[in-house]
Design a protein that fits this description.
- This protein has 8 helices and 12 strands.
- It is an alpha/beta fold.
- Helix 2 packs parallel to helix 3 and helix 6 crosses helix 8.
- The longest helix is centred in the middle third of the chain and has 19 residues.
- Bound molecules: calcium ion (CA).
Length: 233
């Protein structure tokens, strides 16, 4: 049996115990690192499937840990941050983290984030996100070669920016993308104006892809952070 291996990076022993007890009860394997340097060492020697990374570490900054891991690996990283570290959380996502949990979090939230990440991992490994020229998610289909997108059999009439935005979200399905990341990819800059434009384009895109734009199924809003396309079953 192939259990998922999680690297738990947390200096706070009670939180670390809560996490590892939860992991054990749900059939995950885990290794622990109490600081940033040991996290980098464990990540390189054990090649875990997922990293759970506390941002406030006693030695080096959690964001620095992400930057160092990202020089050689794309392993999914979920950051754990306190409310007071909101800016750090965004910096962590911009540095290549996949998702985040805010303290205090529940066991259910932790498990839900792990499931989302595992689905993304599976999706990356089966190659459907990158190597295939057609992306499908629920009723949404994007044919990258022809530059067309569909809901069911109906072709969507998207503006070039909406199409670019949809492709960017699709290629990062399961991952939270920050406003800065998206505006840089779409417009090559990230001025305040671009974030406002992004909201407008996201609203028009949703009207075209979502059956109920008020409670979107494909693209979630993370208030103050960014957006995530979720894998629809
Ligand atoms: Ca800490």
């Amino acid at each position: 049996m192939n259990k998922v291996l999680i690297l738990v990076v947390e200096d706070d022993a009670p939180i670390r115990n809560l996490i590892t007890t939860t992991l054990k009860a749900h059939d995950y394997k885990y290794i622990i690192a109490p600081n940033g340097e040991s996290a980098i060492m464990e990540a390189s020697s054990h090649n875990p499937d997922i990293v759970l990374l506390d941002l406030g570490l006693p030695d080096i900054d959690g964001v620095e840990v992400i930057k160092r891991i990202r020089t050689w690996s794309n392993m999914p990283i979920i950051v754990i941050s306190a409310r007071s570290e909101d800016n750090d959380k965004i910096e962590a996502l911009d540095s290549g983290a996949d998702d985040y949990l805010t303290k205090p979090f529940s066991v259910e939230e932790l498990l839900a984030r792990l499931r989302v990440t595992q689905r993304r991992l599976y999706f990356m490994q089966t190659g459907s996100a990158s190597s295939n020229s057609v992306f499908t998610n629920g009723r949404l289909k994007i044919d990258f070669a022809s530059g067309c997108a569909y809901i069911g059999e109906n072709e969507l009439h998207l503006t070039p920016i909406e199409y670019k935005l949809l492709c960017l979200m699709a290629k990062n399905v399961g991952k939270v993308l920050t406003h800065t990341y998206i505006t840089q990819k779409i417009w090559g800059s990230s001025w305040e104006n671009d974030v406002a434009s992004l909201r407008v384009f996201m609203a028009t895109l949703r009207k075209k892809i979502e059956s109920e734009p008020g409670s979107p199924q494909y693209i979630q809003t993370h208030i103050g952070v960014g957006y995530r396309m979720v894998k629809v079953e």
